[in-house]
Design goal:
Blueprint (H helix, E strand, L loop, with lengths): L4 H21 L18 H15 L19 H11 L6 H20 L8 E3 L5 E3 H23 L8 H21 L6 E8 L4 E7 L5 E4 L8 E6 H8 L12 E5 L1 H9 L6
Parallel strand pairs: 3-6
Antiparallel strand pairs: 1-2, 3-4, 4-5, 6-7
Length: 274
């Protein structure tokens, strides 16, 4: 048996992004590993450490035993503390050590994916001990690593891959969350609609419709009388959704028509990453 067809998209997206990350960081000088990234408190080295650590855990490696320093201002929640262990333990690793461990982890993970024969519905142990399906774990992993590839590209001034396989996994994952954002988080009124018009390397138009009971659904048909229409480019959509930039900093790239208060509530609820 081999990887289930429904999982292949996520495996391909992961492979494409992790290879891109390796190409980005392998030639870096020692000092470049310390460059700041859009992730608060994390440098280029820290993001690569996170990538290594998460894939090691997906391989079943035991988590390192490590006590975090008390002065990490960006670590405020249990989720952040969990993630920071794999990062902080590598903070003094040299560039060659980081590249070597990344390459070795990628080799191991590729081998693991080639031999993966479990059903997508198999329950696996995810971050923080949370149980989830194998399909969801691989989908989330493809999204996470593409987002971090983009973080590194932004930090290093090397844009690209905004329409790579990981970008489309990210698009679908973010769209699946939109109905909750519009209804539960932003409180859109019953019998209303919110339209999202995204242009750029990845283009789409989606309408979130709120029924009489306040339940939201999403489709690709335009709405004749939406409560609000939000238009923005794909890169800005991603950066807002991943919490990489404040709305005020990209306000000139977001066009709103209709209910401005509802738009503000929706955009305030956009970030989906911890």
């Amino acid at each position: 048996m081999s990887l289930h067809p429904s999982l292949q998209t996520y495996a391909d997206a992961w492979t494409h992004s992790v290879e891109a990350i390796s190409e980005l960081v392998t030639p870096l000088a020692e000092g470049e590993w310390n460059r700041a990234t859009p992730c608060p408190g994390w440098s280029v080295r820290d993001i690569v450490s996170h990538v290594i650590g998460v894939d090691c855990e997906m391989l079943g490696d035991p988590r390192p035993i490590h006590t975090l320093p008390r002065d990490l201002y960006h670590v405020q929640t249990e989720s952040q503390r969990y993630q920071e262990i794999q990062v902080d333990i590598r903070r003094h690793h040299t560039a060659p050590e980081m590249v070597s461990e990344l390459e070795y982890t990628v080799i191991r993970r590729n081998r693991h994916l080639r031999n993966e024969s479990r059903d997508p519905s198999t329950i696996v142990r995810g971050p923080r001990g949370i149980e989830e399906t194998l399909e969801f774990a691989m989908r989330r992993r493809a999204f996470d690593i593409w987002a971090h590839e983009q973080d590194l590209r932004w930090s290093l001034g090397k844009p690209g891959n905004l329409d790579s396989p990981g970008a489309y996994v990210t698009r679908d994952l973010l769209l699946s969350i939109l109905p909750k954002i519009v209804t539960k988080d932003a409180g859109a009124p019953a019998d209303s609609a919110a339209v999202f018009d995204v242009h750029g390397p990845v283009e789409f138009l989606r309408t979130v419709r709120v029924d009489a009971d306040g339940k939201g659904t999403i489709d690709g048909s335009p709405s004749l009388g939406p409560a609000v229409t939000i238009a923005l480019d794909w890169e800005t959509y991603v950066r807002l959704s991943c919490g990489r930039v404040a709305l005020d900093a990209v306000a000139d790239r977001v066009k709103v028509e209709g209910d401005a208060d509802l738009a503000s509530a929706i955009l305030a609820a956009f970030p989906v990453t911890p």
